[in-house]
Write a structure and sequence with these properties.
By secondary structure, this protein is of the alpha/beta class. The protein is built from 15 helices and twelve strands. Strand 8 and strand 9 form a beta hairpin.
Amino acid sequence: MKSGLALKEHSASIGISLRTIDILCLLLSGLLSHWLRFSNLELNSTYKNVLLLGVLIATSLLTFFGAYRAWRGTSFSTEMKCVIMATFGTFLLLVISAFATQSSALYSRIWVVTWLITSTLLILSYRFILRISLGALRSKGFNIRRVIIIGDGELGQNVANKLISNPELGLVVQGFITDQPHDHNRSLKQDLPTLGNLQQLDKIVNENNTDQVWIALPMSEAKRMERVQSALATSAVTIRMVPDIFGFQLLNQSMTEVAGLPVINLSTSHMLEGKNRFLKSLEDRLLSALILIGISPILLLLAIGVKLSSPGPIFYRQERVSWNGRVFNMLKFRSMPIDSEKDGVKWGGANSKPITKFGSFIRKTSLDELPQFINVLKGDMSIVGPRPERTFFVEQFKHEIPGYMQKHMVKAGITGWAQINGWRGDTDLQKRIECDLYYIEHWSIWLDMKIIFLTFWKGFVHKNAA
């Protein structure tokens, strides 16, 4: 195991190594981009200055966004975001610098764009290869961290199985520490010993050269958690706690700090965060305004069609529930006679309701939904989000379908993840909720763009449109 120890001893220099390689990638991609643009590698003083400034900004932003922290156990997509935000930020700062110094005419913007694209791809490529290589080495016992788990109950066994199932993390479970009677019915993927109790913890950690102690105790065992910290007060071992939240229905769970207090978010949305909320609002208002201007002739023709097809108003206003349980009037082009719901409404009865001939056409093509861009412009809805439901049905479904009310953590949408996957109209409500919660969990501007694109790509016509 000497080679494993050698890697471990030098692990502190990984951050320096990553910085060095990133700088080389930035310099090499800058030279490559110059060759692609001008077919030579002879940079004049202006290009050299821009290259050095870009390298300085990029390495500073990579540090700022956390690109040099320990990545063991985190997803590559998280690392990708750090790199992309840093390189995109570098581009913006170079543009601002060029305008501020009035030097943008002295060098090629194509070169700058090519440079930042190639440097991003180069940095991500080598980091991906490095991650795969380290994972392979750790799977074979190199660069490992020895872990002891406090508690061998259901939570402790769950933690052990997760670490055993992911050998590329290099986290080797040595065994359990417990004050409780030994559980002979353990459901483990690998047989693990009970090393002792909490009174022996410090001795056990030292004798086994343990690197990390993971506390996997129920939240009711706060006193025992304190004893763990007390027992390891003179040790340099890393202590981690795994919250007992596996039984909760989680949505974007995370740790945060409020008024200096550590807080675990069990259910929240990234869209509620300041910058994301602003971006989502900007996306909605800007796109809805452009779309309304673009489709205004179509809206006029549809309004005339509704008016000529049957007596009554052009718009059908229906009370729906959106973000945070807020009630609003959702707009549609009227497709039914004005007295079609005089006997009340019921779930799943869309196809049995009377409908005009023109109404049938605009429903099947989803053209009746177009006025909802007015709702988006007003701030009642988003372009992308869970479809809103009537107040009456919300009161019914929130008691029948697990997680139903979590869809109201964000604004309702004209289209959404459920709709592009075929779950619209009178379809399986449970499946629609699963899609809505997936969207909230994985939201990003890019996911919104993908959903909007697929909505147009797959077309508005659908057999379940209603």
